Amino acid sequence: MNLSDSRTAGQPAESAADLGAQGQSTAQRPAQPLARLSAAEAVFNAIRGDIESGQVPVGGKLSSEAALSQHYGVSRSVIREALRSCTALGLTVTKTGRGTFVVSNTVAGDLTLGQYSARDLTEARPHIEVPAAGLAAQRRTGEELETLRQIVEAMVTETDPESWVALDSSFHAAIARASGNKVFASVVGDIRSALAFQSETLNMVADRQNASDIEHQQILAAIEAGSADAASEAMAAHLRAVGVALDSILNK
Predict the structure, then answer these.
(1) Farthest CA pair distance, the chain
(2) Per-residue confidence (pLDDT) for residue 17, from 0 to 100
(3) Do 37 and 139 sit in the same domain of this protein?
(4) Range of 147's domain?
(5) Helices 76-88 and 192-206, interaxial angle, to 10°?
(6) CATH number for the domain harbouring residue 221
(7) H-state helical runs in 39-111
(8) Which of 14-23, 76-85, 129-138 has the lowest mean pLDDT?
(9) Nearest Cα to 155, choosing from 99, 192, 206, 209?
(10) Which residues fall within 8 angstroms of residue 144, CB to CB, at 6 or more apart?
């Protein structure tokens, strides 16, 4: 099977079970059409389907990154992206030097995002990023505004999921810095990797990228206009939308 690292359409998803066990490849299931997805999304959906269906049992070990990469015809970075989302959903755990193991066949009640959880972020972000956006509208310098513009422009045209996620966390960190409040800037800097993990998973599972692009543009427009109220509300609306997307994943 070859998904390549570009966008795919209508290609069948094969099993992600341990392909290398005893030199035998896993039998293919009947082909299921895929919507137009990124390679990482397609791999993630295939692995998740195998886990939730029991084809890869709890306690079972997934193939190595190298074997999965060869099987799907994608780079190892794409495999790692898909596996990170499986881990965030509580389906797998990766043990250094040993591999990735299935720990549950159902999505956990919260996302694991490095040292923080989705609940941690959901509870904290409105108290940090909403006022930070308002202050950024009042205090941003011309240079900071230009940085935000460049990030948003790059996000709209970015087709690589991993690069988009990096830009997303950069956007939020840049707003915190533009607020002129060192505490806000420090806190957002500290949770930046968790924000990236969450964004990556939401894009893959809930298809949030295009909606986020629009919401970011609205936040930027309010900051450009110098309207603290509008910037705060735009950020609040963005965070509410993220919360809805999280609920759609966790409450399935």
Answers:
(1) 64
(2) 53
(3) no
(4) 112-250
(5) 90
(6) 1.20.120.530
(7) 39-53, 65-72, 76-88
(8) 14-23
(9) 209
(10) 136, 174, 177, 178
- Please state the pTM of the whole predicted model: 0.77
Length, in residues, of the chain: 252
- Return the CATH number at 77: 1.10.10.10
Same domain (yes/no): 77, 161: no
Amino acid (one-letter) located at 64: S
Same-domain pairing of 129 and 210: yes
Q: What are phi and psi of 168, to 5 degrees?
A: -60, -50
Residue 242 neighbours by CB distance under 10 Å:
23
Domain count, the chain: 2
The tokens describing 178, both together, are 């533009």
Residue 65 carries which side chain, given as an amino acid letter? E
Q: Are residues 184 and 228 in contact, defined by beta-carbon separation less than 8 angstroms?
A: no
* Residue 9 covered by a domain: no
Nearest CA among 138, 142, 227 for reference residue 179: 138
AA letter at 139: R
